[in-house]
Design the sequence.
């Protein structure tokens, strides 16, 4: 939706085609959204028909390995979609958000991992260009996958914010927050452990867990952990918010914890919300961390994904407002120059060339 909006602002026509049910986003009702019901093959067929009826010159497939309800063994749907569009003269770009599952000795997962790699190879072979969301993933595509399906030049298409940032309100307190789901790899336990130490040192400290974390056993476990914590009364779950409300809540923070185990990266739609607001971010250097992230300049990289490490980082930033301000300003600059949707759209159009 964000990318389509930027393309439309530049005079291009853009629409979104996806799995049913789907509707126009309230923040961008002018962007057409067409959805197709059914299983993966039926969806691929229906989307191809709608894309061709729309008269597209270019199509961007935003890829995850198990799209449209495909099982752990993948599906032929996406390669068929790309091939159909290519045959009709549409230029197809592939934006790889998630690649494939890791290898496992469990027989079903082993077979699934192999099939997902074959699915990706078949899809790459049917596309004109390939994008990945982090520099680290360029090597993955240039490695074993490329041996089976040599891709065209692999470029980086970074991900911008889901909630458009608003400028930090610089409250000058000790409000810490994060905006995340409870998906695997999101280490809420680190944030809670760090906050217990921070709350003991700062009586006004608060921790805000922003967004809809759903209803699941993980949520129940999280709530039990919060209830048992000595700082639990100062932990606030916002529940589901509109995207403008998310942006406003992030802008009220003094510090933002980015708790993904992959480290600070350019494939997150939540991290740019804090960066763009100028809120200092604490994260780690992980497997997905882009060279754009520079410790002490636009992010504070804790020395480990554990509570004490994040608590030390927070205390250092609270004790050194000048450093915190420098990191906040650097994060806002990083956002403006690399992670805003305007920059991403410009880069995409430059890659696609004249249409």
Sequence:
């Amino acid at each position: 939706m964000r990318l389509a909006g930027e393309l439309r602002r530049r005079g291009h026509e853009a629409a979104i085609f996806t799995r049913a049910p789907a509707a126009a986003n309230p923040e961008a009702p002018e962007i057409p959204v067409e959805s197709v019901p059914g299983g993966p093959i039926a969806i691929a067929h229906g989307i191809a028909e709608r894309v061709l009826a729309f008269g597209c010159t270019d199509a961007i497939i935003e890829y995850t390995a198990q799209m449209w309800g495909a099982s752990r063994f993948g599906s032929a749907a996406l390669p068929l979609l790309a091939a159909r569009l290519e045959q009709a003269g549409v230029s197809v770009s592939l934006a790889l958000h998630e690649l494939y599952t890791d290898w496992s000795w469990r027989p079903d997962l082993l077979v699934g991992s192999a099939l997902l790699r074959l699915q990706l190879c078949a899809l790459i072979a049917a596309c004109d260009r390939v994008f990945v969301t982090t520099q680290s993933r360029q090597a993955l595509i240039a490695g074993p996958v490329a041996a089976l399906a040599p891709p065209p030049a692999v470029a980086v298409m970074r991900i911008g914010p889901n909630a458009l940032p608003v400028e930090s309100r610089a409250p000058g307190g000790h409000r810490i927050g994060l905006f995340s789901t409870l998906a695997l790899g999101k280490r809420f336990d680190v944030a809670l452990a760090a906050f217990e130490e921070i709350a003991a040192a700062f009586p006004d400290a608060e921790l805000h867990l922003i967004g809809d974390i759903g209803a699941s056993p993980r949520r129940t476990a999280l709530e039990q952990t919060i209830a048992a914590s000595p700082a639990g009364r100062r932990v606030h779950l916002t529940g589901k918010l509109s995207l403008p409300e998310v942006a406003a809540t992030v802008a009220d923070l003094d510090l933002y914890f980015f708790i993904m185990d992959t480290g600070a990266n350019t494939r997150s739609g939540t991290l740019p919300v804090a960066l763009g607001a100028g809120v200092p971010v604490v994260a780690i250097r992980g497997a997905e961390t882009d060279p754009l992230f520079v410790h002490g300049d636009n992010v504070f990289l804790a020395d480990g994904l554990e509570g004490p490490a994040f608590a030390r980082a927070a205390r250092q930033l609270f004790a050194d407002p000048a450093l915190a301000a420098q990191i906040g300003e650097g994060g806002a600059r990083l956002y403006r120059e690399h992670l805003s949707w305007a920059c991403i759209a410009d880069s995409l159009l430059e890659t696609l060339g004249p249409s």
User: Anything to note?
Assistant: The chain has twelve helices and twelve strands. The chain has a mean pLDDT of 91.
